[in-house]
Amino acid sequence: MGGHQSFPRVTLPKERVVIVTGANTGIGYETAKCIAMMGATVILACRSEEKANQAMTKMNAEFQTEKDRKNERVVDYPELKIEFMKLDCASLQSVMDFVKEFKNSGRQLHVLVCNAGIGMSKQAYTEDGYELMFQVNYLSQYLLSAHLLPIMKTSGEDCRIVLVSSEVHRYSEFNLDRIQGRQFNERNFKRTLFYGNSKAFQIMQMFSMNRRLQKSNVTVVSLHPGVVQTEVTRNFTDLAPWALLFGVSKLLGASKTPFEGAETTINAAVNPALKGVRDVYYNNCKPDSIHSRARNKQNQESLWAYTQDCLKKGDFLPDDIIQCLEGE
Ligand SMILES: NC(=O)c1ccc[n+]([C@@H]2O[C@H](COP(=O)([O-])OP(=O)(O)OC[C@H]3O[C@@H](n4cnc5c(N)ncnc54)[C@H](OP(=O)(O)O)[C@@H]3O)[C@@H](O)[C@H]2O)c1
């Protein structure tokens, strides 16, 4: 599991159930693998079954290697308790199908890691009519959290929602009139701004949810994983400043490997010392400052109402889910 680690040695029972979205590669892959090696049951919520199957085969091979090395940090199962369940965050219907399948499994849910994301994509709209990064990075995973919340509330103490955000949340605006970017065209669409917005919205979701979950067993935290060499660059190889940042960081050894990038997520998901901790944005496993725009309560509540309006339009938020979200 690598030399440098900043999460404690933890053993988890197989009854502890963790969902990691976007777990087939990058930070999500390492997060899912390491938590499964600690003993938990991990659901890989991915859009491609083929990629998820390849990832699970690789995870089990790496698990075997760790066992052969007699690594005492990994459990002694014959195989990891990992499963694929289909989730395409570009489709609200796919989120609903995922929720239905998960509910049918009768499982409890202890940790939801909202990791799936796309970086600085070109202007594009989903089948639901929303800006792609808004929906994939934020809206769909808000919907997922909302529908899984009733299960988490009845899954015993210390349940956590971990939102993988970014330092780019600082390069954002809060303007509901252009939240979908329809005023822009393919040439002048501000890709960094809209990525930054989606990442700021995750942090705002954290504050709004926690306000409503104060008295519950469910806590929400957010984090920046670092500049991590993953496939995240695939959408912005043509954006010179960002391609340069990732290229130069790699050359200078200043960026993180996917495992190092996953450490902050893993720590937030499993560290027993963080039980009950809310409203924190972690960076390098330590609390960090949050931009004032994302900390602004009025912005948070406006986004909350806007988000619910989006989801109510397609009947994606029934009354019982809203009541649960509102802390009732
Ligand atoms: N890498 C960095 O430097 C960095 C910095 C700050 C924040 N982050 C954040 O960290 C998270 C993980 O990124 P990463 O660096 O590991 O990137 P990555 O290697 O590109 O992995 C992204 C994951 O998200 C999945 N995904 C993308 N679109 C999806 C969709 N529509 N439905 C379901 N899953 C989808 C991908 O699945 P496919 O393989 O099928 O596309 C993949 O599993 C993201 O939220 C990203 O914004 C990364």
Number of strands: 8
Which ligands are bound?
Answer: NADP nicotinamide-adenine-dinucleotide phosphate
Largest sheet: 8 strands, mixed
Tell me the distance between the termini.
Answer: 41 Å
Mass-distribution shape: globular
Structural class by helix and strand composition: alpha/beta
**What is the count of helical runs?**
10
Overall pLDDT, averaged?
Answer: 95
Predict the CATH topology.
Rossmann fold
Which series of helices and strands comes N to C? Answer: EHEHEHEHEHEHHEEHHH
CATH architecture: 3-Layer(aba) Sandwich
Polypeptide structure, described:
It is built from 10 helices and 8 strands. The chain has 328 residues and is an alpha/beta fold. The chain has a single domain, classed as Rossmann fold, CATH 3.40.50. The protein has an 8-stranded mixed β-sheet with strand order 3-2-1-4-5-6-7-8, sandwiched between helices. The protein is globular. The termini are far apart. NADP nicotinamide-adenine-dinucleotide phosphate binds next to helix 1.
Question: What tags apply to this protein structure?
Answer:
328 residues, alpha/beta, Rossmann fold, eight-stranded mixed β-sheet, 10 helices, disordered N terminus, binds NADP nicotinamide-adenine-dinucleotide phosphate
Briefly say what this structure is.
Helices cover 44% and strands 12% of the residues. With 328 residues, it is an alpha/beta fold.
Any chance you could write out the topology, listing elements then pairs?
Elements lengths: L16 E5 L4 H12 L3 E6 L2 H20 L13 E5 L5 H13 L6 E4 L17 H22 L5 E6 L26 H23 L4 E7 L15 H13 L5 H13 L10 E3 L2 E3 L3 H4 L1 H17 L5 H7 L3
Parallel strand pairs: 1-2, 1-4, 2-3, 4-5, 5-6, 6-7
Antiparallel strand pairs: 7-8
Bound molecules: NADP nicotinamide-adenine-dinucleotide phosphate.
